[in-house]
Amino acid sequence: MPPSRAVGIDLGTTRAALARIDEPARSAMIRDAQGDLLIPSVVFFEDDELVCGRAAKLAAVARPDRAAEFFKRDLGQAAYSRAIGGELLSAELIEACLLKKLEAELADQGIAKPAVALSMPASFNQAQRRARLDAAKIARVELLGTINDPLAAALSYAESQGYLHPSTPDKPGCRVLVFDLGGGKLDVAIVEIKPGRLRTMAVGGNAKLGGRDWDLRLAEHLAEQFAKEFGQDPRHDMTSVRRLLESAEEAKQSLSARQQARVQVERGKSAAAIVVTRQAFEEMTADLLDEAAAITEGIVARAGMAWRDVSGLLLVGAATRMPIVAKRLEELTGLVPAAAVHADEAVARGAALYAECLLAAREGRQTDLHVAITDLTVHSLGLEWNDPRTGRVENVVLIARGSELPCGTVAAATTDTAGQSSLVIQLLEGESRAADQCARIALLTVRDLPDGLPKGTQIDVHYQFTAEGRLQVRARLPRSGQSLPISVRREQGLTESQISDWQQLIARGQGLRAIHALLPEHRRQREALAAAQPPGPRAASSAGPPALPNETPADEEFTLETGSDATARRLKKRRMTPRRLAIMLGGYVVSALVGTAIGYYILMRIDPSYNWWHLRLPGLRDAPASSADVH
């Protein structure tokens, strides 16, 4: 049997990792041409070529203005946070360059046409998820699907414990806390693992809290100490800032193994060897760890569980190597971190296992992997609504955070005027009731409304999350069932034309000169698009809460596939049948009888005079004689 094409890719903030499926259906890590398991997430832009990985990191020392690092945090934004060669580039383009490099590494390993599952931070919002999918499209990766990082790590752990093998159907299940502190984000999840099944019970995190923030805090301390001694700030240019941050990262790693580290800080002819102790480092970053601990406690509370209900602790991500992190989690949970999970490899391995499941299903072949995966929504999906009574712009939640995927709902929108030809719906993500405190993820325009519609005409808009957390939308007139076209304008992101341009450029292996040549045309396209799509009439939300639709949407605007069959099955399972009603009522009656009997027994033990029927039961004394029996 030929080796599987299934590959898992963990695109980390600081490093990327690759994993494949070997015989017999076991995950294995892939090394790059230099023999490294972890590839630096760095892209260096030469005039006529793109350099990635370790070579890019070395080149960035001399020309930091040509290097892109930590771009993962800018996915979903208008552009990467720093200019490259004097121009702002999209984070999707930069990540696509790295993906193309990783695909080349796979080809060197004999996997010419990899079928990929990409890991995705659970804390990503829809804009960030869409940006990562666009990056994969630009790189022309054969994408099977995506999986959230904590679930991928739990899947890797399940493999190591034998939960994915068909010969272990009776293996006792467990619930694990996955604490994934990477370079740029924190994901926390509680995952229930049973033979052949993984289910996320609660998930959350912070996409802006990661090991990089510990580096920045230490770099600030080093700069302050240097300034006290020499009266100069060592962060005077991009080169010195980059050098300082690298020194801070190296010191952080040293402090994970030693009690103190000596850091060399330079500016011009001035140099200082600054000593940092582990205790001082932990004190200056204590608030970061407190925030991570608070998120973790919130996840347990959201799951409706206590720590005694959690049986395992998985530490994932390079930043969890800081001793204080493991210590704090052990104190919090009362658990010792599982040794079977490799902090740097778990997510990539889990993504590879997921890719194999998806690929086997697509190809209709048998596989030794047997697993069903259920995840949750991390953020609430809502729409912007102007309350006519208060004048406040509010967030009306359509699908709540923590809903089991796939899931969907329908909300009714109404026209404001007679003969209205279109209406606009602003989609939001977030938990706040105030719309301005939520993320605006897309502007939907329901177009081509039939002529002559009266004011207040209802239009049903269906919202559906797939099993992987991607959103799809459909609109129709409820009376006639007529489907209505929807155009989507994302707050940030690339157009199909821009994606096509970047695809061709990367396929040709061109560099920064060709990229800069395309940017003026892309700016003109964005300006023309903005001018061609003025704001239309806003939809008025229905007064009542949205109800689940009788059928799930078939058309999609945001995603690659639909989860409608799974949704229908789940809704069918939840319906109350006569048999379930009889079982439920019978359970109540039996519970009431057993409780009454136990209570009566306890009462008889306390006071034997209540033993009216003179029952002979263990532990009961005879009732004392009454006064009438005394002679």
Percent helix, as a range, is: 25-40%
DSSP helix count?
14
Radius of gyration: 29 Å
The main sheet comes to: 6 strands, mixed
- Give the overall shape: globular
What average pLDDT do the residues reach? 86
Which structural category do the helix and sheet elements fall into?
A: alpha+beta
**Span of the ends, CA to CA:** 97 Å
What fraction of residues sit in β-strands? Answer: 15-25%
Uncertain ranges:
540-575, 626-631
Counting DSSP E segments of at least 2 residues, the number of strands comes to 26
Secondary structure elements and pairings:
Blueprint: E1 6-11, E2 15-22, E3 26-30, E4 38-40, E5 42-45, E6 50-52, H1 54-62, E7 67-69, H2 91-108, E8 115-120, H3 126-138, E9 142-148, H4 149-160, E10 174-181, E11 186-194, E12 197-206, H5 211-230, H6 238-255, E13 260-267, E14 270-277, H7 278-284, H8 286-302, E15 312-316, H9 323-333, H10 346-363, E16 372-374, E17 381-386, E18 393-399, E19 407-414, E20 423-429, E21 439-446, E22 458-465, E23 471-476, E24 483-484, E25 486-490, H11 496-507, H12 512-532, E26 540-541, H13 564-574, H14 578-606
In short:
With 631 residues, the chain is an alpha+beta fold.
How would you describe this structure to a colleague?
It is a single chain. 34% of the residues lie in helices and 25% in strands. The chain has helices spanning 54-62, 91-108, 126-138, 149-160, 211-230, 238-255, 278-284, 286-302, 323-333, 346-363, 496-507, 512-532, 564-574, 578-606, and strands spanning 6-11, 15-22, 26-30, 38-40, 42-45, 50-52, 67-69, 115-120, 142-148, 174-181, 186-194, 197-206, 260-267, 270-277, 312-316, 372-374, 381-386, 393-399, 407-414, 423-429, 439-446, 458-465, 471-476, 483-484, 486-490, 540-541. The strands form six sheets. Strands 1, 2, 3, 4, 8 and 9 form a six-stranded mixed beta sheet that branches. Strand 10 and strand 11 (186-194) form a beta hairpin. Helix 2 (91-108) crosses helix 3, helix 4 packs across helix 10 and helix 5 (211-230) packs across helix 6.
